[in-house]
Amino acid sequence: MPTEFDLRRKNAQFANAVRSGKKAVKPSHQERMTKRSPISLWALGVVLFVVIGGVLFELARLVFL
Questions:
Q1: Taking burial as the number of CB atoms within 10 A of a residue's CB, which of 17, 19, 20, 21 is the most buried?
Q2: Residue 23: what are its φ and ψ, rounded to 5°?
Q3: Residue 28 φ/ψ region, left for φ over 0, alpha for ψ in the -120 to 50 degree band, beta for the rest
Q4: What is the DSSP string of 9-52?
């Protein structure tokens, strides 16, 4: 197991690398939140289902009535 000194040294190296422009291995919480969609995937599916279903019903009404 690494000593406390080794951990501090590795953390400092990582922090310096990130500050100098290298990408962090794990994105921060703020970066993950900015990339998220404001609507969840299942809600988007429900909206698409309703919209596409409505279009299909309207086309069927125009063709058959």
A1: 17
A2: -75, 145
A3: beta
A4: HHHHHHHHHHHTTPPPSS--HHHHHHHS-SS-HHHHHHHHHHHH
* Angstrom distances, CA of residue 16 to CA of 4, 19, 20, 22, 28: 18, 5, 6, 9, 16
Mark residue 34 as left, alpha or beta (left: phi above 0; alpha: psi -120 to 50; beta: remaining).
alpha
Q: Phi then psi for 2, rounded to 5 degrees?
A: -70, 150
Q: What is the pTM of this model?
A: 0.47
Position of tokens 């993950």?
Answer: 32
What's the pLDDT tens digit per position in 3-61?
A: 999 999 999 988 888 888 776 677 778 777 787 878 888 999 999 999 999 999 999 99
